[in-house]
Design brief:
The protein is mostly beta strands and 315 residues long. The protein has a five-stranded antiparallel sheet, with no helix packed on it. A hairpin with a 5-residue loop joins strand 22 and strand 23.
């Protein structure tokens, strides 16, 4: 993905959206184009746009250049070079499209942790289990969470004490801090509310640690967390009464899904690709996962008023 950065005089820098040490496309009035740091400046590191030969396309051209090497060209062999602006071919015009984030909401049930220190699980009033009996210094972790494009994490919490803080870290319990949530009393250990933190300094697939800090009492309970691009504080909370279950988990070849009539199950790999999808008709139904490779997945069960995400292991 590329972004256009205004130079301020009607012209534009063309830069890689992902940054890096040399993100800017550059040419200096010769046939070759290359990349440079954004700290560099010069007469020929910026471009303007003119209407292309094809509808809704544009030529990317050096402004006021008095040589033949004015127009950026990428031909159908993948060659990138500068050519004269009298050229008027398909391979010299560009469609400008908005890049759309591919980040998807990833909800993790707290009790589905991969590792932990000091915590216990218990039955939750919102169905299933929650994590509880949390003391200062306890933690839990989830392996291989895709944080690409993620800007927010919500947590479903409850407490009757003074609460504490959830530190969101990557790599280890003392790893990079990417978010932090303060939790205060909700009136009871099963009186649930959703709290949120922005996520920064995180990308790609990471092991995520929730580190709990606070006073000497039990701090709070956690029902689920969700990584997303739009806080649940700003969305309708759904899934409050869902009791969908999938068993056995880990799955060898087939699994039974219960309490999911008229819902759709979609199973995603860690890279967010879809590996299985099926509309469920009955309250109890067998799904054949024999064609799914061994690994860790997330099963999204979705329908009107319901959104459940269950960690699924395929053996």
């Amino acid at each position: 993905e590329w972004k256009f950065v205004a130079k301020g005089n009607g012209y534009w820098h063309l830069e890689l959206a992902s940054g890096g040490t040399m993100p800017r496309l550059r040419t200096d009035q010769n046939e070759e184009a290359d990349m440079q740091p954004t700290s560099s400046s010069g007469s020929w590191t910026y471009f303007d746009f003119t209407e292309g030969a094809i509808a809704n396309t544009y030529f990317i051209t050096l402004p006021d250049v008095n040589t033949e090497f004015k127009r950026l060209q990428i031909d159908n062999t993948g060659t990138v070079k500068m050519v004269e602006d009298t050229r008027n071919g398909t391979w010299e015009s560009f469609r400008i499209t908005e890049a759309v984030s591919t980040a998807e909401d990833t909800r993790l049930e707290a009790e589905d942790f991969d590792n932990m220190f000091g915590i216990q699980t218990e039955a939750s009033s919102e169905s299933g289990d929650n994590v509880g009996y949390i003391n200062d210094g306890d933690w839990l972790s989830f392996d291989d969470v895709n944080l690409s494009g993620i800007t927010n994490m919500d947590a479903r919490v409850a407490t009757r004490t003074g609460g504490g803080t959830i530190e969101v870290r990557t790599g280890s319990a003392s790893g990079t801090l990417i978010g932090s949530i303060d939790v205060s009393s909700t009136g009871g250990f099963q009186n649930w509310t959703t709290v949120s933190t922005s996520i920064s300094n995180a990308s790609g697939t990471q092991d995520v640690y929730l580190v709990f800090t606070g006073g000497s009492d039990y701090l709070f309970n956690v029902n689920w967390i969700e990584f997303n691009t739009n806080s649940r504080n700003n969305k309708e909370i759904i899934n409050a009464v869902s009791n969908v279950i999938i068993y056995p988990n880990p799955v060898v070849s087939t699994a039974t899904i219960e309490n999911a009539a008229n819902l759709t199950i979609t199973i995603y790999a860690m890279d967010s690709s879809t590996v299985f999808s099926k509309a469920i008709s009955n309250e109890s139904e067998v799904i054949d996962l024999s064609g799914v490779a061994a690994g860790i997945y997330f099963a999204e069960i979705k329908g009107e008023g319901i959104l459940e995400v269950i960690k699924l292991v395929k053996e």
